[in-house]
Structures are given as structure tokens and as C-alpha cells.
Amino acid sequence: MSDDIRLAAIRAGAVPAGGDEGRDLVAPPALSSARSYPDLDALDAAMEADPRVYRRYSNESVALLEATLAALETPGGGEAPVARVTASGQAALLLLVSAAAMSGRRRVVLVRPCYGATEALLVGPLAALGMATTVVDLPVDGGADAGALVAAVGGPDVAVVVVEIVTNPLLTVVDVPAVAAAARACGAVCLVDSTFATPFLFQPLAHGADLVLHSLTKHLGGHSDVLGGVALASPQSEAAGWLDATSRSLGAVLSPFDAWLTLRGLRTAPLRVERGNATAAALASALAGHPGVVAVHHPAVRGGADAALAARLLPRGIGPMLSIDVRGGRSGAGRVVRALDGIRLAPTLGDVSTTVSHPATTSHRNFSAQDRVALGISDGLLRFSIGIEDEATLLAELTSALTAGG
Ligand SMILES: Cc1ncc(COP(=O)(O)O)c(C=O)c1O
Fold first, then answer.
1. In CA terms, which of 55, 314, 338, 343 is 20 to 30 Å from 17?
2. Which of 195, 214, 253, 385 to mutate to test the pocket of ligand 1 (most atoms within 8 A of CB)?
3. Alpha-carbon separation of residue 153 from 110, 134, 140, 370 (angstroms)
């Protein structure tokens, strides 16, 4: 992780040094929903030039968070992307797909595996509004040429190709540069959901992507007290020009208090992500031979083409996630969850402390059992979001729960 990126996160929201003595060390949240003006001319001028006039357009806390998140995606100090923070990760997806659709193209290519609600938004409300979706399935055991598979379904009607760099929930890695090249070849843009990797481990814009999405609810917020998202567009992309106006119209913007909490979470995000990332990889290897485990889903254990791709695109690791197929299907998973001591079951990820989720019940519950099997999501699959606890503590808790559950 570059020092610039760590610094931008660690100092997020800090009031710059200098100026008057006795200033706040950290910018307070700016909560007002609008500003007032002395007369019509002043209001007219503000409506033209100052987005902070009304909170749906912008706000100091929101603008500070957007500038920080844009800096995290701009390694080496190039031109920063346009960033808009949104009411959730889903709202960021809606905003980015809407901005891409301003091109007049009416089809999305969705690369699976991916978060279940991503597909649900595309094939549900967006399909009803006239946006078609073509799904491209990458085999779970890796080795597929993702670029060729996307190119095979491309065409002049494709607005955007949507892909996750580290996929939810099986933690496979997708060849984003190849997918982005295939998108470009048909005149479409490539949108990377980088929620699992975070900007500290992967920067999509440096790998050919045009648009980036993070759920701020997860590792970046990091404390399970924020629901938010960010939509970023490369300054070169046509969609960047649409993002501001589209965001103002859709109105699914982040509240300033959530922006302020996210800035606070961001300050420790590099440390939390580094720590969870290292612990997840170590636990993956340590649990691989456990008798209660059917399969460990992590490139550190999977090896082969997936591990090679992970080493090429994510040399510092894939992030703080670890998925495990436990013996005994749903009832086995239920027993393991009940036997866990401090690791809590919740339909989310990215907390300071370790949590566990059951994809078949949560992120992928809208799929039929048959589809889940085809996607490699078994009823015994547990997805762990590794926090900052000691590795030894987590290993002891997990081995004991797996033994009790098996
Ligand atoms: C990979 C991924 N992208 C996007 C989202 C959506 O984020 P949010 O719940 O903030 O809308 C999630 C939520 O779990 C996710 O896992």
C-alpha cells in the first residue's frame, strides 16, 4: 500500500495545520439541509456556483469525504476521479449504471460470481426500466479467460460491464484488466465493485476500469454504524460528466452524519484492512486440513490460476475475508455458528471485530437452491469477515466451533 494512500486515509477529516490557534482538530459534521441568503441575487449566484446551497447537491462533510475517497483511488497524484457518496452501496450502483446509461446504450453485462443484490437490482427494477442484463458466469475453479467470455457477449448496445475484483462470497479473483479491455473494445465502460478489496489493496482505475464502487458500510466505514456507498468515475470517462447531475436527480445521497462517521472509520481503515487481510490468509491455511471443513475459499489455499491472478493483481492480499464450507450443510453451519464464542452472526461484513454470515440465507437468498449450487454457494458455506483480534484467539475460537459443529 503506498504511503500516500495510507496518509490520505489516516488524516481523513483532520483540519489542516496552520491558521488560527484553537481550531477544531477534526472537522465537525455539517448538518444543515440548506443555506440561507440575504437576497435573490445571492441565492441565484449560489444556485449557479455553490453546491452546498442544498444538501442533496453537496455539503461540507460529504465533500470532505468525497475528496478523501477520490484521493484514495488516485495513486501517484494523477487527476482525481469524480466521487459521489451515496445512501448505500446499492445506491452507488444505481447511480453509476444510470450515469453509464446516459450514453443511450441499454444493456449491462454482469460478471458472476457477485453480490446477490447487485444482480437483483439489475434484473429487477433496472430491467423494468428498460435496461437489459446479460450474465457471464466465471467457473468457480478459476482458469477461465474472463476477457474472452465478456467479449463474446459484448456489442454496441452495452453501456457497462459490472464486475467484482474479489467476488462475494467465494473470494475468487477476476482478471479486471482483461474485462476492462473487453468492455472498451465494444465501446462500453467497466465498473468494478471493489468493496472486498478496498483502495488499500486494489485500485481499479489503475487497472483499466472507468467506474468504481465501494460499499462504505463495510471495511471503509468499519464499525457497523454507517450505511453508505461511493461512486467514482475516471475523469476521462463520459460518465464522469453525468455523475453530478445524475446524483442530484436520483437524490440517494449520503447523510452528513454518516459521512462524518465514515471519515472517522477511514482513519483506521489501512491498519484494520492490513491486519484482517494477514489474519484471514493465515487462518485460511491453518483451517484447510480441519476435519470439520469441506473446503476453504481463499486464494492462499486454492492455488492454481486463481492464486496466480491474485498474486498479479493483489500482491498484498485479497482483503480481510475468508469463506469456509463446513461439514453437514445448513445444519452443520448452524451448529458451528451456535458454537462460536465471540464471533457474531450478521448479514454484513467489515466490522472492527470478526463477524460471520451465511450467504445462502443472506446475500444470495434470492437465488433458487439450484442456482446457488451452480454458483458454488452451498448451504454449508460460512463467510467470515476477519477483524483485528489476535490470530491465535480467532484460530482457537474457530477450531473449537468447527470441532463442536462437525
Ligand atoms: C460486494 C458488495 N457490493 C455492494 C454491496 C451493497 O452495499 P450496501 O449494503 O451498502 O448497499 C454489498 C453488501 O453486502 C457487497 O457485499
1. 55
2. 195
3. 10, 8, 19, 24
pTM above 0.85, yes or no: yes
Candidate CATH numbers 3.40.640.10, 3.40.50.300, 3.90.79.10, 3.40.50.360; the one for domain 3-266: 3.40.640.10
> Is 325 a catalytic site residue?
no
pLDDT in tens, 167-176: 999 999 999 9
3-state secondary structure of 332: helix
Minimal-distance CA residue to ligand 1 atom 14? 348
Mutate to test the pocket of ligand 1, among 86, 163, 168, 365 (most ligand atoms within 8 A of CB): 168
Active site residue 225: no
Distance between CA atoms of residues 263 and 269, nearest Å = 10
304-334 pLDDT, tens digit per residue, is 999 999 999 999 999 999 999 999 999 999 9
Amino acid of residue 11? R
Considering the segment(s) 269-405 as one domain, its CATH architecture is Alpha-Beta Complex (3.90)
Q: Nearest residue CA, atom 11 of ligand 1?
A: 89
Q: Domain extents for the chain?
A: 3-266, 269-405
Question: Among 313, 219, 233, 345, which residue's Cα sits nearest to residue 274?
Answer: 219
pLDDT digits (tens, 9 = 90+) for 195-223: 999 999 999 999 999 999 999 999 999 99
Residue 193 bears catalytic tag: yes
Q: Report residue 221 as a C-alpha cell.
A: 466505514
The atom of ligand 1 lying closest to the CA of 229 is: 10
